[in-house]
Design a protein that fits this description.
Blueprint lengths: L2 E4 L6 H8 L4 E2 H9 L3 H8 L1 H15 L5 E3 L8 H8 L4 E5 L2 H10 L6 H4 L3 H18 L2 E4 L5 H8 L1
Helix pairs in contact: 1-9, 2-4, 3-4
Bound molecules: shikimate-3-phosphate (S3P).
Amino acid sequence: MAKVLIGFMGSGKSTIAKKLDPHYVDMDTVITDRIGMPIAQFFKEQGEPAFRAIESQVLAELLQQEIVLSTGGGVVLSEQNRQLLAQNQPNIYLKADFETLYQRIAADTANDRPVFEQNSKADLEKIFDSRQELYEEVATQTIDVANLSPEEIVEVLV
Ligand code: S3P
């Protein structure tokens, strides 16, 4: 099984995955390679449903492997994805409050995040709220990461 990191944008999934295993796999990177363009461009040209379909395909493939896996924040939206994740463990939910995450995402210009770009802060908070129960549903472990350094988070996990 894979060691899967889940959580909203800005929760530190890739940072923590890299600390757990430098050879971790990042789902968004796999998807970007597969679609041959940045995710934001794919959202514009093909739409979000097309992105979600590829995301589901990639998740199913990667869950077959013994890897540390950093997922995209929307991976829990699909019922099919949640069912697959429910058969896996551990699924580690990196949880934080919306304001902390918003500040982090806003400050992070290196990443390509259409869901952030295309929504007002109020709408993004609604998206955040609606996803909470989905993360909780598949999480086998939840860590409140808002006030922890990456080193402290990794200490809890290993
Ligand atoms: C998304 C989060 C992104 C990426 C895509 C959609 C989302 O991943 O998969 O832009 O719906 O929350 P990160 O959580 O790594 O930013």
